[in-house]
Amino acid sequence: MLLRLPSKHIIQAFQRKLLSWYFLHGRKFPWREIQLDPYRAIIAEILLQRTKAETVSKVYLEFLRKFPSWKSIVDTDIKQLESVLTPLGLYRQRARGLKALAEKMIDTKGILPQNRDELMQLPMMGQYLANAVELVLWNKPSPLLDVNMARLLERYFKKRKLADIRHDPYLQKLSSAIVNTPNALEMNWAVLDFAALVCKAVKPECEICILNEDCKYYKNSVKDK
């Protein structure tokens, strides 16, 4: 089935508005402010999965202080690791996954695979985390597609067909097109921040939204009510 994306002109207008907003209103987090090596970058994205960025920001630097390397995670008792991860939720699942990934990274002397297929074989390395590695470490314009990015893109453009965002062809292709800019990292952050601060899941601030003029959600669900 042919996937029809918005025109290049529409996508570029969306990108310009969001980037302009981001450079004025974007959130500040430790993993955005410091130079990230592979370890720090991967740890940040693992902690961010299914957890609010504001919550992660409270524990990220402390986690790095307690666990400055893959070896420090391997050498730590699983219960102690779970205790540190408890404020983030999913602490048992996250601790087991981190242990398994750390052991694998020790085996490879901390060197990540250099292609997508091999990268996906690592523990915890799902689509989102692999995209994050490509974006942050390999400078590829990959989307940090989660429920927040999906919500903004679907409200502004149109809804996806499949329940799982990882397998919806339209949303996958659209998100890739949106972040395919020279500022791919900032574009990703702009979408995520705008979704968190303006295009919120509950009570989105549609009336003051800089995108509402062309937003399908605003036109169909808000404007005429």
From TrEMBL:
<keyword id="KW-0227">DNA damage</keyword>
<dbReference type="Pfam" id="PF10576">
    <property type="entry name" value="EndIII_4Fe-2S"/>
</dbReference>
<dbReference type="GO" id="GO:0032357">
    <property type="term" value="F:oxidized purine DNA binding"/>
</dbReference>
<feature type="domain" description="HhH-GPD">
    <location>
        <begin position="47"/>
        <end position="197"/>
    </location>
</feature>
<comment type="function">
    <text>Adenine glycosylase active on G-A mispairs. MutY also corrects error-prone DNA synthesis past GO lesions which are due to the oxidatively damaged form of guanine: 7,8-dihydro-8-oxoguanine (8-oxo-dGTP).</text>
</comment>
<dbReference type="InterPro" id="IPR003265">
    <property type="entry name" value="HhH-GPD_domain"/>
</dbReference>
<dbReference type="InterPro" id="IPR044298">
    <property type="entry name" value="MIG/MutY"/>
</dbReference>
<dbReference type="GO" id="GO:0006284">
    <property type="term" value="P:base-excision repair"/>
</dbReference>
<protein>
    <recommendedName>
        <fullName>HhH-GPD domain-containing protein</fullName>
    </recommendedName>
</protein>
<keyword id="KW-0411">Iron-sulfur</keyword>
<keyword id="KW-0408">Iron</keyword>
<dbReference type="GO" id="GO:0046872">
    <property type="term" value="F:metal ion binding"/>
</dbReference>
<dbReference type="InterPro" id="IPR011257">
    <property type="entry name" value="DNA_glycosylase"/>
</dbReference>
<dbReference type="GO" id="GO:0006298">
    <property type="term" value="P:mismatch repair"/>
</dbReference>
<keyword id="KW-0326">Glycosidase</keyword>
<dbReference type="GO" id="GO:0035485">
    <property type="term" value="F:adenine/guanine mispair binding"/>
</dbReference>
<dbReference type="GO" id="GO:0051539">
    <property type="term" value="F:4 iron, 4 sulfur cluster binding"/>
</dbReference>
<dbReference type="InterPro" id="IPR023170">
    <property type="entry name" value="HhH_base_excis_C"/>
</dbReference>
<comment type="similarity">
    <text>Belongs to the Nth/MutY family.</text>
</comment>
<keyword id="KW-0378">Hydrolase</keyword>
<keyword id="KW-0479">Metal-binding</keyword>
<dbReference type="GO" id="GO:0034039">
    <property type="term" value="F:8-oxo-7,8-dihydroguanine DNA N-glycosylase activity"/>
</dbReference>
<dbReference type="GO" id="GO:0000701">
    <property type="term" value="F:purine-specific mismatch base pair DNA N-glycosylase activity"/>
</dbReference>
<keyword id="KW-0234">DNA repair</keyword>
<dbReference type="InterPro" id="IPR003651">
    <property type="entry name" value="Endonuclease3_FeS-loop_motif"/>
</dbReference>
<dbReference type="Pfam" id="PF00730">
    <property type="entry name" value="HhH-GPD"/>
</dbReference>
